[in-house]
Amino acid sequence: TGIGAGPAVIAPLAIGAALMVMVFAGGHISGGHYNPAVTLGVLIRGKVKATDALESKQALEANSTHVVPYMIAQFAGAAIAALVVGKLLRAGIAVTPITPKIAPALAAECLFTFALVYVVLNAATAEGTSGNSFYGLAIGMTVMTGAFAVGDISGGAFNPAVALGISLLGISSWNNIWIYLAANFGAAIVAAFVFNLINPAAQTTPIATDEPPYETPQ
Fold it and tell me: Which CATH number goes with the domain that contains 19?
């Protein structure tokens, strides 16, 4: 997220690369969302029901899991990460606090959260890209680009769980968390509707129940 993570050039590269490898590593297990905004976008896009399992063949979908537990796990993971970083901070590692201005931060977070969720839906849930091996790269590079572009404006969270983490660490004030929550969830909703608008039903993969992941539908 480009938030006090070191030299301006290195931080976005590290963040994008880390997300890329984690998506590739966990995509076949859980879908590799790692982001409540992505989970919400996938829900609205129609690939998962609020109380049903994600049972499709695409990379960003999971098996036998639910939206609420996903989000609980995502926020819990952010809290645990904040605790770990807090230990490192006490060891002398410096993190620069951010003080975003409301309007620019909202715009920045909306823009790149929309881009992230839109890329996720197209690279990992559309039939036209079914079975591809580049989805993780596309997702990681989207976050990297956003961190480069607007990291100095909003901190570049693009993820409500990240917003929780930086608030717990004191990197961002709790008074600012609504900026990230509103922008991230709002942009995810818009991205899902735009995806459904420009992708006819025939070009999206129906929910499957038995086939293994990554298999192209016949």
Answer: 1.20.1080.10
Question: Which residues 6+ apart lie within 8 Å of 47 measured at CB?
Answer: 54, 56, 58, 60, 61, 125, 205, 207
Q: At what angle do helices 36-45 and 102-124 cross, to 10 degrees?
A: 50
Within 8 A by CB and 6+ apart from 51, the residues are 66, 67
Residue 144 and residue 21 in contact, taking contact as beta carbons nearer than 8 Å: no
When pLDDT is averaged across residues 78-96 and rounded to a whole number, the result is 81
Confidence of residue 52 (pLDDT cuts 50, 70, 90): very low
For residue 211, is it within any domain?
no
Task: Indicate the number of domains in the chain.
Answer: 1
Tokens of 50: 């609020």
Q: Which of 150, 88, 74 is nearest to 113 (CA)?
A: 150
Chain centre distance of CA 116: 7
pTM of the model: 0.81
pLDDT for 60 equals 45
Element (H, E) at 52: none
Assigned domain for 210 exists: no
Domain residues for the domain of 132 are 10-203
Nearest to 196 by CA among 188, 157, 163: 188
